[in-house]
Amino acid sequence: MDRNRQTPEPEELIDLLGDWSSGEGPLYRRLTDAFVRAVRSGDLHTGDRLPSERRLADALSVSRATVVAAYDALRGSGLVETRRGSGTRVSGGAVVHRVPADGRVRGGQATAVIQRLVAQPPDLISLGQAAEAGGPDLARALLHLVREDLPGLLRDVGYHPAGLPALRAAIAAHHTAHGLPTVPDQVVVTTGATQAVALSAQLYLGRGSTTIVESPGWPGCLDVLRAAGSRLVGVELDSDGVRIDRLATALAEHRPALLYLMPTHHNPTGTLMSAGRRRRVAELAAEHGVTVLEDSAHAAALAPGQAPPPIAANPAGATVLTVGSLTKAVWGGLRIGWIRAPQDTVARLARLKALHDLGSPLLDQALAARLLPALPALAPERARILREQLATMTRLLAEQLPDWRWQAPQGGSVLWVQLPPGTDARVYAQVALRHGAEVIPGATMDATGAHDNYIRLPYSFAPETAAALVSRLSAAWTALSRSGGR
């Protein structure tokens, strides 16, 4: 038994159990089977103490009798043992099949989100993805690529760790048009924005480092920073972006290696940081000598002038890395992102990129090079569609879940919804899963664990999917209310 290992809390245990309530058979049997899988895979270790029946029942929003029956079955199989004064623990006789590391981040918050993305359970409407299907503009660009560009691309050797030159030039022109003068040598292309964050974290962070982040934020990116060995310190936002007074205090107190922000249509609040706030962030970063990683994954969907210039455009002397992506602007399946940074930093990032994959897929990059210059012309139509989707979602919510509250987002494609006081969104998420909806609780999106009565709700669904989703959320809310879970 590892005496230094911390016994999992109910919230962590819920992630390890996964979608335990799906499948067939009595609920207690499904819970028993999930514990068996967790122990035999090594997710639960010998000596780990399980929560009391009542604590686990509350966290899972099931009856105490369900947990009692599951624990009885586990004791009967010899997998756990209960002793007076020490509770129920995983037995030393449990058969464990040790497996290599599987991507979970110790202390992370995105385990369940990532697992469902990998498993893709059938008939589950996920609130973990705010993405749309590819449109006709993507199809037309692909056809032009095949007819006009493919012969030349096939003559290329195919290895471009920093990115296809044509795409680097298109990205540089895109940033220049949005108020950030850029040359191609200041760009490295990545396989999506997540890899851009991961490469930046690998370059600047290490075990024992500190990163300042916004609270709330997106758990997938927060876990990428944790995986690099960094401790996260959350700073709250207001309607104008990250709070400058709290940021100044955190910078002085923690001396971080990195400051990670989403200034343009923040995920999940939709906040658009003002030009003045961006300037103050750059000034504080220069004053404290901290590198800024600004995640502008939503900015590519905007026409010039729809958002203030990036933080990197402010002449304050700070080192700023600007992350972009085509996922939100074009299609989730086009995994093209990038980092705009000083040229010497780009050279270091390109070497790290080469170690990962020798360069992103060439045909995807060529397609992105065709699409990127056309995005400003597509922005008005995309904005119109998002307005209609927002109107549909808010109407459905007002009709079926009138106790829920939210502020109209300044942009992006998600609502940051506040549940009534006294509601634990993690408990509601367990009930929603049993009704076919994956809910992302607010506490998993906050490095401080706050916002535990919020959920992130994308609205970029087709009308029929939005109707089905809200119907499932409403049914789950009714079930939670009847059980006394709120």
TrEMBL record:
Pfam families: Aminotran_1_2, GntR. PROSITE patterns: HTH_GNTR. Keywords: DNA-binding, Pyridoxal phosphate, Transcription, Transcription regulation. SUPFAM superfamilies: PLP-dependent transferases, Winged helix' DNA-binding domain. Residues 25-93 form the HTH gntR-type domain. GO terms for molecular function: DNA binding; DNA-binding transcription factor activity; pyridoxal phosphate binding. InterPro entries: Aminotransferase_I/II_large (IPR004839), HTH_trans_reg/aminotransferase (IPR051446), PyrdxlP-dep_Trfase (IPR015424), PyrdxlP-dep_Trfase_major (IPR015421), PyrdxlP-dep_Trfase_small (IPR015422), Tscrpt_reg_HTH_GntR (IPR000524), WH-like_DNA-bd_sf (IPR036388), WH_DNA-bd_sf (IPR036390). In the C-terminal section; belongs to the class-I pyridoxal-phosphate-dependent aminotransferase family. This is DNA-binding transcriptional regulator. The lineage of its organism: Bacteria, Bacillati, Actinomycetota, Actinomycetes, Kitasatosporales.
